[in-house]
Amino acid sequence: xxxxxxxxxxxxxxxxxxxxxxxxxxxxxxxxxxxxxxxxxxxxxxxxxxxxxxxxxxxxxxxxxxxxxxxxxxxxxxxxxxxxxxxxxxxxxxxxxxxxxxxxxxxxx
Amino acid sequence: xxxxxxxxxxxxxxxxxxxxxxxxxxxxxxxxxxxxxxxxxxxxxxxxxxxxxxxxxxxxxxxxxxxxxxxxxxxxxxxxxxxxxxxxxxxxxxxxxxxxxxxxxxxxxxxxxxxxxxx
Lengths: 109, 119
Hints:
heterodimer; A: mainly beta; six-stranded mixed sheet; five-stranded antiparallel sheet; 60% strand; B: mainly beta
């Protein structure tokens, strides 16, 4: 399967700070999704972004498919942004998602 | 109006028992999945069903048997539970692989998870 690497593995921010999370993948993909796993364990869909740029409030994401990476930007972070952020991809010919190991974000007041 | 639901949310049981986890989706999707999240938070596919037919079966012990009575339901039955089965199990659904009417056609949506603890 496709290898998915996320960085950094851990991130601690002061409330109000901005951050960039990175996802590198090893092969061409048909699907790339960003998820937020909140402290209660729920996987929340943030973006479906196999290519291009999308924005949703304080969050935005960019995927450069030809260079096999995606970035998730969080601006003006809030304590409720804490949790683990996962990047997941689906390769051509595959049906399931391959997940990265996640970035654990802690936002302190 | 829950999209993907799972029951139970928590399951605590003894080694050797048999248990089932149920999943239902009301999104009209044809494809459903089971993923396992281990203690290190790593998520990995276990099974995928498309319109009630198994299309992926990763290296999962045959003690795990998925059953899809219809395309809105995908249940997971586990026989002879072992300590190493303790994990969070997530159900997900999507439209099948391939093109679709909108760009996000293949987006996967996840249920709330079932935390299984084997004692």
